[in-house]
Amino acid sequence: MLRRAEFWGGLFWLGVGVFVTWQGWLLELGTLHEPGSGFVFFWLGLFMSALSLSITVAGARGEGPLLADLWRGARWRNVVMVIAALIVFGILFQKLGFVLCSLALLLFLMTFVDPVVPKLSIPISLAASVGVWYVLEKVLLVQLPKGSWLEDVPYLSWLAG
Amino acid sequence: MDVISGLYQGFAVAFDPINLLYCFIGVFIGTLVGVLPGIGPISAMSLLLPVTLSGSPESGIIMMAGIYYGSMYGGSTTAVLVNIPGEAASVVTCIDGHEMAKRGRAGPALGISALGSFVAGTFAIVALMLVAPMLAQVAVAFGPPEYFSLMVLGLTILSFLTQGSMAKALLMAAVGVVVGLIGLDQINAMPRLTFDRLELVDGIGLVPVVMGLFGVAEILANIEQQIRRDIVQSRIGSLWPSREDLKASAGPVGRGTLLGFLLGVLPGGGAVIASFASYAMEKKLSRTPERFGKGAIEGVAGPEAANNAAAGGAFIPLMTLGIPPNVIMALLLGAFVIHGLQPGPLMMSQNPKVFWGIVASMYVGNIMLLVLNMPLIGMWVQVLKAPYRILFPLILMFCIVGVFASGNAVFDVFVMIGTGLLGYLMRKFGYEAAPLVLAFVLGPMLENNLRKSLILSQGSFEIFVVRPISVACLAVAVFLLIAPLLPALRKKREKVALDVTE
Question: What is the ipTM of this complex?
Answer without folding.
Answer: 0.92
